[in-house]
Amino acid sequence: MENGILSAMKLLMQSYKPPRLRLFFPAALLLLSMGMCNLPGRSGDATPTLNVTQAYQTVEARLTQALTQTPRTQPVLTTPTVPSASLSPTTASANTPAPATAIPPTKPPTAARPCDQAAAGNPIDVSIPDDTVMQPNQAFTKIWRLENAGTCTWTKDYMVTYFSGEQMGAPTNVNLRGDVAPGQTVDIPVDMVAPKEPGKYQGNWKLKNPSNVLFGIGPSGGSPFWVRIVVAESATASPTASTSTPTGTVSATPPTVVASGSAKLSPGDRIDLDTLAINSGENEDLSYETNVDGQHLLAPLDSALIGVYGNNQPSLSNCQQGNISTAPVIVDGLSVGTYLCYRTNQGLPGWARVTDLNIDNYDLSLSLLTWSLP
């Protein structure tokens, strides 16, 4: 029987596979115990009884020897792979960097409008656009159109003030003529005189509040506005030119005046500058109007032209060469005594002088003179 048990163990050893080692021991012990239990007892047998402990130790020694002689193979993992999506929050945060959280851009707060700030009107140069050609010592009136872009009303205590560059004979400060509420525009005239030397000149100006704080135009409200002119070479007489006749009389013939006089216009009136007739319905050259901002202006009709000249009476050549256009002239900002040059729709030059502006009903009084062409 002992040989049979050993033979069975040998067969088990030959069929041994290392990966199934844990199943082998229980099977070997089961066979050993079954064999021992089925051994018939024989009384008086001289053969000694098999020692179970020794048999177990023998089997264990043989198994140990077999394991040391058998090449080891990598065991196959039987634990299922856990998908990345099923990782616990703790494991994922330990191995995977947390995704960046998108922070929506914060809209910068809108800056509050300052109390005092100006903006360029449309147009800013009502008279004397940049690089206007002037004669030496020629008097002119520069008019800027500015908008109150702040939150405070400009009063008569506000003023336009010389800032830098060429002052051109202008006063340092000129007060505004009336109140200008936020959002309104105003025409600001300043009387100037062109320098006597030829060249290009620019004067920079700003506004000043009652506390003597300067402010201007532009996004930051600190930029100046300016007047820029070109003074031409003075005319030189030809060496053969004669300024007088042998009798001593001037040879130049004065221009012929076709119309002169005064006129009083109420808002809505029209005037024919060739005849000075008001509301005739024919050949009318100027319309005295009120715009949507409540400003009063002289607007050219048809092919007529008009422009601001200054405080000195212009000559025929001054008005022929002056800065006139189809743009309306706002009269609210004009001082009494200001001269305007015009050209009628018949092509005749002339001037108009502001003699009065009634601020109660805005009746406009003018002195006018129209020349004929030579």
What features would you describe in this structure?
This protein is of the alpha+beta class and 374 residues long. It has three domains: 2-37 and 50-64, no CATH class; 118-231, Sandwich (Immunoglobulin-like), CATH 2.60.40.10; 257-371. Helix content is 16%, strand content 30%. The strands form four sheets. Strands 2, 4, 5, 7, 8 and 9 form a six-stranded mixed beta sheet that branches. The chain has a five-stranded antiparallel beta sheet with strand order 10-19-18-17-15. The protein has a five-stranded antiparallel beta sheet with strand order 12-11-13-14-16, with no helix packed on it. Strand 7 and strand 8 (214-215) form a beta hairpin. The protein is elongated, with a radius of gyration of 55 Å. Mean pLDDT is 78; it is low at 40-44, 84-94 and 236-251.
Instruction: Tell me the overall shape.
Output: elongated
Alpha carbon gyration radius: 55 Å
Percent helix range: 10-25%
Q: Helix-strand pattern, N to C?
A: HHHHEEEEEEEEEEEEEEEHEEEE
The largest sheet, given as strand count, sense and whether it forms a barrel, is: 6 strands, mixed
Structural key phrases:
single chain; 374 residues; alpha+beta; Immunoglobulin-like; 3 domains; 6-stranded mixed beta sheet; 5-stranded antiparallel beta sheet; 30% strand; elongated
